[in-house]
Design brief:
Number of domains: 2
Helix content: 25-40%
Structural class: alpha/beta
Shape: globular
CATH topology of the largest domain: Rossmann fold
Oligomer: single chain
């Protein structure tokens, strides 16, 4: 039987803040790695205590190259120092929109190749939160147990407590409409999807939105906000269709480049999202909730603690 005394919870540097929240939910200590950077740029990592025979839980976003490499180092270090098991939680998976390469483009499908690197480091278990595509779950040869963790219950609870009323959920494209339909059924509200076409890497055009939004608050739901272009276009189409207000929700608030400034100047009154992406906090525009309660349940179920 595994007890909390036999579990070591740590994180890559970008996930330390969420790691501390997770430790509070689990009523157990958070173990921060010892780190030292040398003059030549090399970085030393060390576990501050023995992990021999312990069950290692590593929280690690991979939103940039450094965080991805650090996660690989921590998994490999867990193997080197004889952890009983290595359990990885990835709140946000970088390159998750690059899970396939178009024929004859010779692009690297980094969503697959980088996830395969994680699996080849030989963790026992990897859980992902609200993946853009489940294709990455199968980028291994069967030796790693994987889990796709949906945040539906957290999203529903957040919307119910938001003070919003008489709303309709809107998917910015048909690809995400099944998830939006599922959320709408849990909220007992109507839903619809916008017509969206992609014509370049970061460029989309949104055609129209159903009149079901007329006189209602439209909540545009997506898995992530990257540049926000399609969501802002969808918001304009909602207002043209008669919506009285527009709110956006996304699990992963990437908000790249000048997207936050665009949202402040745009038609959306509020952006709701989680803390899976590092550095996001609540302000007059953005309302952030934590996925720590959800991740605590995942770990408790996995280790039976």
């Amino acid at each position: 039987m595994i007890t909390k005394e036999n579990v070591i919870l740590t994180a890559n540097q970008a996930s330390i803040e969420l790691g501390n929240k997770l430790a509070e939910r689990l009523w157990m200590p958070f173990t921060e790695m010892e780190r030292k950077r040398f003059a030549d740029g090399e970085c030393l990592h060390a576990f501050p205590q023995s992990i021999d025979g312990k069950h290692l839980v590593i929280l690690g976003v991979t939103h940039d190259d450094s965080s991805h490499q650090e996660l690989l180092d921590l998994i490999s270090g867990g193997r080197y120092w004889n952890a009983a098991s290595i359990n990885v939680i990835i709140p946000f998976l970088g390159y998750s929109t690059m899970e396939r390469a178009k024929p004859s483009t010779f692009e690297l499908p980094k969503g697959i190749t980088r996830t395969r690197q994680i699996f080849r480091a030989r963790p026992n278990y990897v859980a992902f939160v609200d993946l853009h595509s489940e294709a990455v779950l199968h980028a291994h040869a069967g030796e790693v147990q994987t889990k796709h963790v949906w945040s539906d219950d957290l999203v529903v609870d957040k919307i119910k407590k938001s003070g919003l009323t008489d709303y309709v959920l809107v998917s910015p494209d048909y690809g995400f409409s099944k998830r939006v339909a599922r959320l709408a059924s849990l909220l007992n509200c109507p839903h619809t999807a916008a017509d969206k076409d992609r014509y370049d890497t970061d460029k989309t055009i949104v055609g129209q939105v159903s009149s079901v939004v007329k006189g209602k608050t439209a909540i545009i739901c997506d898995d992530m906000i990257r540049t926000g272009g399609s969501i802002l276009q969808t918001a304009n189409r909602c207002l043209e269709a008669g919506a009285k207000d527009v709110v956006a929700h996304a699990t992963h608030l990437v908000m790249a480049g000048d997207s936050i400034d665009k949202f402040r100047a745009g038609p959306i009154s509020k952006v709701i999202g989680s803390d899976t992406y590092p550095g996001r906090s609540s302000d007059d525009l953005i309302e952030v909730y934590s996925v720590a309660p959800l991740l605590a349940e995942v770990i408790e179920q996995r280790l039976q603690i």
